[in-house]
Design goal:
The structure holds two protein chains of two kinds. Chain A has helices at residues 5-33, 47-55, 58-89, 95-104, 110-123, 130-154, 158-166, 171-179, 184-200, 203-208, 217-228, 232-265. Chain A is mainly α. In chain A, helix 1 crosses helix 12 (232-265) and helix 3 (58-89) packs across helix 9 (184-200). In chain B, strands 1-2 form a two-stranded antiparallel sheet. The longest helix of chain B is centred in the N-terminal third of the chain and has 34 residues, at 67-100. Chain B is built from 13 helices and two strands. The two termini of chain B are 34 Å apart. Classes of the chains: A mainly alpha, B mainly alpha. Chains A and B meet through helix 1, helix 3, helix 4, helix 5 and helix 6 of A and helix 1, helix 3, helix 4, helix 5 and helix 7 of B.
Chain lengths: 267, 295
């Protein structure tokens, strides 16, 4: 569609202003991360990243984050595939009601469940374990994943299942051989979203592992902030380290981030 | 229907339930059951260890006259302006620009404006604390242009702290809202715009006559998401202001954490948690209803 050149200029000005607004905090933190620490000579200080990595113990906290993310992503996706398959392709009594029960999970705020989770898991000696950090996040992601994959599986042609039936395939084989392979894009989107939520999760990691031995990356950074507020360059370098995996993933898998967050929102 | 098989490849009527069972068990045990437990906790007075005392609805009654809780609700309402209203206006303008004009580098602008959504809130907090610091970039910029009186420790100033936190919310949410609206706008057929232009409609008329009415559904979704984000903004508040100065920036979700784990008032914390849950449910229902009636 044609627009006048005056309008087009105006459009670029508006877009430029907001792009700059979005970028300034990110550029500021990047610039601070390579700036000299107190008393150092001016210039580019890439060594800040190394020092922040070592002092902040980010090797350990990022490792914890990876383990938690691996547990949450594999469990949540596996459970959601099974449940989404049933809701999306099978007819059974109570399916609508059961599905609404899962939808409810999209609205339950973490703040409401985290208190009883902490005290009840403490009673059974499970706080400060990977399970305590992972299980509540699996539960949240399963609610979303079931909803997400139900929509995907429903949109598949019934003839696919009928063809599988003629070949004598049972439900599990049909799922693994036909339904899941045909849904790789939707599954990728789900993996990306759940990974991002888990990597960035703060409250659950904060409450469920009070001992500090299983700090995830965001907790490691918060702890680092508590200790090093005076050394802004190091703190910023640590922040960049924690944000980097997500930003790189976003640059490569942008389509999946955007698709998931948009279509997932329009329920 | 009565004797139908669940699907072409499923004979047994038990199969669907078996497929759902593992997901349901984890979801019920670690999401539904804790919610019920929170409701139960909210009827007791309990410091987190030792015996508890049943107090009925007293925790809820106390909330009504609790200045910190009332501040949290009031602050959340202010934050809704920054998290939901402002991003909606910005998102509408940006999405309309993308839809209307051929914008070169559209992909670049879109990605950059959306980027804040994928960054961990801890990192966001570090970045903005730096910007708002007494000698940070914002104050330096203000001093550089002679607005010295405006310079202040933004997060420590009772009047400025809440808008300062809210502004971070605007920065976070504008990209998500923009993309939601853009998805809606891209479904508007081109001929509608062309017809309007043949009739001599300018960009503003076109926006109100065609664009805005056709994205009502997306506006509803955007408002539900961002209003809930405003109510639940725990990470940012915890990491930038800890609810202070005083209770100037506390929000319901911060009150839940603070009461349970700092004040050791688990019953009161649970009451706040239940109120927060009900608010979230109510907003979902209410905003969706309003959206349905409008269309």
């Amino acid at each position: 569609m044609r627009v006048s050149s005056a309008e087009r200029t105006m459009n670029y000005v508006v877009l430029g202003v907001f792009a700059l607004f979005a970028l300034i905090p990110i550029l500021t933190i990047l610039a601070t991360a390579v700036s000299p620490q107190n008393g150092q000579a001016p210039g580019l200080h890439l060594a800040n990243f190394v020092e922040a990595w070592q002092v902040g113990g980010f090797g350990r906290s990022m490792g914890n984050s990876l383990i938690v993310a691996a547990i949450v992503v594999t469990s949540a996706v596996a459970l959601s595939v099974l449940a989404g398959y049933a809701f999306g392709t099978m007819r059974f009594a109570g399916s609508t009601v059961l599905f609404y029960v899962f939808l409810l999970g999209l609205m339950i705020p973490t703040e409401a469940t985290v208190i009883p989770l902490f005290f009840d898991l403490r009673t059974v000696g499970l706080t400060d374990t990977y399970a305590a950090i992972a299980l509540p996040q699996i539960a949240q992601s399963v609610a979303f994943g079931t909803f997400w994959l139900r929509a995907q599986f429903r949109s598949m042609p019934v003839s696919l299942l009928e063809a599988a039936a003629i070949d004598g395939a049972g439900p599990m084989r049909t799922l693994l051989r036909i339904v899941a392979p045909a849904s790789v894009p939707a599954l990728t989107t789900l993996v990306v979203l759940v990974f991002m939520w888990t990597w960035n999760e703060f409250l659950i990691a904060l409450v469920m592992a009070p001992g500090g031995t299983l700090r995830t990356a965001p907790l490691g950074l918060a702890n680092f902030q508590g200790q090093y507020t005076a050394e802004l360059a190091l703190l910023s370098a640590g922040a960049v380290i924690v944000a980097l995996p997500m930003v790189i993933m976003f640059l490569f898998l942008q389509r999946h981030f955007i698709r998931g967050m948009l279509e997932g929102a329009v329920k | 229907m009565a004797r139908q098989r669940p699907s072409a490849v499923v004979r047994s009527r038990a199969t669907p339930y078996l497929f759902i069972l593992p997901a349901f068990l984890v979801y019920a045990a670690f999401s539904l059951y804790p919610l019920v437990r929170a409701a139960q906790f909210s009827l007791f007075e309990w410091p987190g260890f030792g015996p508890s005392t049943f107090v009925g609805l007293q925790n809820y009654i106390d909330l009504a006259s609790d200045p910190d809780f009332r501040a949290a609700i009031g602050n959340a309402l202010v934050l809704i302006l920054f998290y939901a209203a402002l991003p909606l206006v910005i998102g509408l303008v940006l999405a309309a620009i993308f839809r209307r004009g051929q914008v070169r580098g559209m992909g670049f602008f879109r990605s950059v404006i959306f980027l804040p959504q994928v960054i961990a809130l801890v990192v966001v907090a570090v970045a903005w604390r730096n910007i708002y610091a007494p000698n940070g970039p914002l104050n330096q910029a203000l001093r550089a242009v002679g607005l010295d009186e405006l310079a202040r420790g933004w997060l420590g100033d009772p009047g400025a702290a809440l808008p300062a936190v809210g502004f971070i919310g605007t920065w976070l949410e504008m990209g998500l809202v923009m993309l939601l609206l853009l998805a809606g706008m891209s479904r508007i057929p081109d001929d509608l715009f062309e017809a309007a232009r043949l009739d001599g409609a300018g960009p503003v008329q076109e926006f109100f006559a065609i664009t805005l009415p056709s994205v009502r559904g997306e506006i509803v979704v955007a408002l539900v998401l961002t209003i809930i984000a405003a109510l639940k903004t725990f990470d940012l508040v915890y990491l930038t202001t800890s609810g202070g100065p005083g209770n100037a920036t506390t929000v319901p979700s911060y009150e839940v954490y603070y009461r349970a784990f700092q004040l050791r008032e688990v019953g009161s914390a649970s009451a706040v948690a239940i109120v927060l849950t009900l608010l979230v449910f109510a907003i979902n229902v209410l905003v969706t209803r309003i959206g349905e009636r409008a269309s």
